[in-house]
Amino acid sequence: MATKAKIGVLGASGYTGAELVRMLLRHPRAEIALLTAERSAGKAMRDVFPQFSPYELPTLVALDGLDWASMKLDLVFCALPHATTQKVLVEVLSKAPSTKIVDLSADFRLADTTAYAKWYGHEHHAPELQKEAVYGLAEIHRRAIKQARLVANPGCYTTCAQLPLIPLIRAKAIDLDEIVIDAKSGMTGAGRAAKEAMLFSEVSEGFNAYGVGGHRHMAELDQEFSAAAGRDVVVTFTPHLVPMNRGILSTIYVRGKRGRTPEELHAILLKFYAKEPFVHVLPFGQTPQTRHVRGSNMTFIGVAADRVPGRAIVISALDNLVKGASGQAIQNMNLVLGYPEAMGIDQVALFP
Amino acid sequence: MATKAKIGVLGASGYTGAELVRMLLRHPRAEIALLTAERSAGKAMRDVFPQFSPYELPTLVALDGLDWASMKLDLVFCALPHATTQKVLVEVLSKAPSTKIVDLSADFRLADTTAYAKWYGHEHHAPELQKEAVYGLAEIHRRAIKQARLVANPGCYTTCAQLPLIPLIRAKAIDLDEIVIDAKSGMTGAGRAAKEAMLFSEVSEGFNAYGVGGHRHMAELDQEFSAAAGRDVVVTFTPHLVPMNRGILSTIYVRGKRGRTPEELHAILLKFYAKEPFVHVLPFGQTPQTRHVRGSNMTFIGVAADRVPGRAIVISALDNLVKGASGQAIQNMNLVLGYPEAMGIDQVALFP
Amino acid sequence: MATKAKIGVLGASGYTGAELVRMLLRHPRAEIALLTAERSAGKAMRDVFPQFSPYELPTLVALDGLDWASMKLDLVFCALPHATTQKVLVEVLSKAPSTKIVDLSADFRLADTTAYAKWYGHEHHAPELQKEAVYGLAEIHRRAIKQARLVANPGCYTTCAQLPLIPLIRAKAIDLDEIVIDAKSGMTGAGRAAKEAMLFSEVSEGFNAYGVGGHRHMAELDQEFSAAAGRDVVVTFTPHLVPMNRGILSTIYVRGKRGRTPEELHAILLKFYAKEPFVHVLPFGQTPQTRHVRGSNMTFIGVAADRVPGRAIVISALDNLVKGASGQAIQNMNLVLGYPEAMGIDQVALFP
Amino acid sequence: MATKAKIGVLGASGYTGAELVRMLLRHPRAEIALLTAERSAGKAMRDVFPQFSPYELPTLVALDGLDWASMKLDLVFCALPHATTQKVLVEVLSKAPSTKIVDLSADFRLADTTAYAKWYGHEHHAPELQKEAVYGLAEIHRRAIKQARLVANPGCYTTCAQLPLIPLIRAKAIDLDEIVIDAKSGMTGAGRAAKEAMLFSEVSEGFNAYGVGGHRHMAELDQEFSAAAGRDVVVTFTPHLVPMNRGILSTIYVRGKRGRTPEELHAILLKFYAKEPFVHVLPFGQTPQTRHVRGSNMTFIGVAADRVPGRAIVISALDNLVKGASGQAIQNMNLVLGYPEAMGIDQVALFP
């Protein structure tokens, strides 16, 4: 039997932490060796997430005082709040420099630490580490990820927007000044913190936009779209909250450039993703539903013609906790550790 | 005590029928004299909608054989399927020409019967009646409605899109060629017909677009926007389904014309609706939520600046069964019968 | 025009507070003169509950320093946390003794202050006031309520359990030692406090019991059932949480005494509630659904035969925020102030 | 590599069919060789369930004309409507007698064909086959299942009720005449047929009982409980519908016999299921939630003391589509084919 990598999950008491544990428990080459949680330190994972009651897991511990060197972890998933992450990972890598890191926070996604300071309101605490971080959108940056020690796992909204748009931008197939992304997310995207606005009774049976005109995720989109285009790209992006647990659907309005038809945009995407295990392009005119990717690492993409000539509507759907977070993180782990890319994350979507 | 108008509701076994009955039961100047339903004819309303169990209501009857003249109805609400509506209303008005009609179907909304034929796939059965029909968006066409015998109650999506856009179009404040309407609706908008795609287990915990690129409601938008603009206007419109019962939220992307700022667009709407009882414009930068208009006849509108210079995001929210259908229909009834416009429909929203 | 009573709502930033405001805004004989909220003091009600944006309401104020005498309130609704309530109401009535009070907390429901101390873990702070408090289940204690200065509004679970059971107990029609109440509540019953367990993502798509074997509401049931029976009655009661906003459904298992059939139990309830405006007994064998009373002050009750001979299943449904809290509170206000009992709370249920 | 069994799924267009396909696609020893669906014959599985778009699957075919002998299927799952099932399986086994069958319908669950006729309203069409059918509750009848050719997979409600009760009944630990089962199910239990009562807008935001006093599943409970007790047992059972997709929770009220305490009942269950992979007994006093078993083959059981002395409350939770249907069916397949019992169905629950 193949050896198993020793894995740590920092911040295991949140939803992305639970998703990592869910998938790692069934990953043939992973052993969960460390689970941390500050406020729940000392508790069993089953007390924080009763779905794990039947399984043996390490007790949750606090970060403070951990001896990173002696634990000999092969890889650490970091699902901590932003800013905290930078400090913790500096510590981990200084004590145990051969540890691989997949960071699920936003802390290392922006290569430009000035942009980071602008959007997050404070100086970056680990600019040296930032330099080696690789942006972990596997379908776009696979080669670099395989060589990385520190992978910055992309955000859920931005994964859902980039997968359909990057190939079109690279192909110079769409007008860069008229991209509108209308995004809708399930509630797990807001995390597990107890806030009034996230209560069931505040959310159920209603729908709304939020952060209109200036959501933080835009910095990440700006960086990646501009890199793909070779010029500055600023898109319109509006996030909304859907009364459901999981899923993001992005309705993207684009105009074909130089006469590109919606059918041609579809063909570009179909070709680009032909061999990808986790991106599936639907037949032209069909559009995806979040429910059909729930619990899986899949992204579904559809393209349809708008009735306004020259315009197309591109729609993408993924599970924000899987391809939008923990599934993609394990995909990155597989790449970093040299495992088959789909190992342990090939679960079929749970519908209904 | 003031006399009560004798009211008929044709198609009372659907959701808009039930909403009419709910509000008419508490309307001080209305008496429900007739309720029709084809498949449920002979049943009590409480057998079709148990919430009416405590109330006395006429037994449901079939349309066939009704003696319209002798019933002496003052006003008939018609909530029948399209096409059927045309035939039935010709019959009603030929037998009882002094009856007022508020039609909730799409049958008389398109002044141009050629456009009707194109979108609905058959010739209009009552072109003569079409000529006298008045489009019933009270805030825009109030004066004409007061004189009308036949009012075509607007659609839910189109009410939600027109209320924020018509004043901006009339004021020549936005670019007419770049309007994108991303609309999201609760499930009652799909009606009560038993279809697999509308089952709880198909809908719950998911989100999707539908009719991408070519929804029927666009004909109504084309007509009204073009009339407001004095030229042809074709907008991009994508409807989505939200796993909730009631509510429509429209996220509308516009570009200010001739230097109009988002703040100026907001000011236009604020002024336009200053005295309207059922349209409420939020302070600049605030955006509405469907849950806060649930069960009420209110429309909430918000305007925010996009980060793309020159662009604004306008968001409107209403209850598709009230302001989007039956509440607006009673508002039209009030206008047609000379009652105070808000009578019987001033209920405060039910949240949570 | 009839004069309006000046009304205060203490604790207006919670769900029961919002429901009071919703109904009082349309009550013909009520004027909202005071709204309090500790943490939101200084805010407008529309900032706490945006559904009230279109309406003029007093600014929220803190309790501390209010001059109860000079405000000359006719009636105060108290929707404060338990224990706090006792202290505040002592203060109100000492300064403005002619004020009527309808208290929505649990503080004055238990006539026996010893029982209170046992269930709530501390001595009662206002035992003198407790003596004059009247238990406000209108259908059972109407006469006493009309004379009361201080009405203790019943709990939502207990209202739903008492309305079907009290008449059966009084009639000595059921075995008192085998009553099982399996109750299910929507999430608004848990209030608006930001707790992890009440987050949308924790609640949606799941179902569970809680407080199994020893819920606080049982003290109230013990008191009322024992009073109705003339002996001690201890029932089994298990509350559950349903992923919905509003509604309680109680499935009650009883055994007919001295040969009473399920049909006879039904007849007792039918007769008992024949003239009540807010309790509706369905035909034998039909059972209620929470959705059909949503937003209304109605309680629906159904009785069916169990297949185990001699046993019956009694099911009751109400909206926990209306008949289970604020609607019943206004019903009590109407009784206390001598208004028609159904004034302002006769709204028809909102379904779907 | 081990050989794979050739598997057929009859009735693949329903929810239990989709669940079988979801799990079989990842089962290391199963190959999906046949998918049938009458109304969808000729369609791809992805057209009926878009979550399967990325996977290669056989085209759906009709049953009529299938050559059972030449297909050489090792095992057939039958998810057809009742009565139809009997006829089809007679056909399958007459043509291909060595095929193993796991039947998910109710058709072969009742050993007594007279009881079948009473509850289902018609004579059993395959009384000979009935004689060899083994009732497929693995934790109770494992030994017999391993030898069976035809396994009758238990119902979802009845699995959820039997797992906690059978050990208690066998141990003669509870009063057999006072068992009350108050069961609550998600909507997928009602299947995928397009019925008005199952529409999202009819179900969402509400709760109700149904089939009060006489649900069909009781015949199965009667049979199994009576067998376990060695005498006739008739329980009270009330099913309810929860506005969620998946999950059953049974709240079971029992009285300990001969002084058995709730703690002793708990100990009996803990011991009985100590080594079972798919039944997990929580610590005494803790009770389960359906969300924590969603998507998994687990059953969680909790026991708490009632405040009425001598009574206990036992609560069980499972996913009706997995342990309540398709997961249990694959568990039976594994037993019948000699595979490890948990193969392919060891997925961890998906929460949130």
Walkthrough of the structure:
The structure is a homotetramer of 352-residue chains. With 352 residues, chain A is an alpha/beta fold. The first copy, chain A, folds into two domains: 5-153 and 323-337, NAD(P)-binding Rossmann-like Domain (Rossmann fold), CATH 3.40.50.720; 157-320, Dihydrodipicolinate Reductase, domain 2, CATH 3.30.360.10. Chain A is built from twelve helices and 13 strands. In chain A, strands 8-9-7-10-13-12-11 form a seven-stranded mixed beta sheet. Chain A has a six-stranded parallel beta sheet with strand order 2-1-3-4-6-5. In chain A, α1 (15-24) crosses α12 (322-337), α7 (138-146) runs parallel beside α12 (322-337) and α8 (156-170) packs parallel to α10 (217-229). Chain A is globular and about 60 Å long.
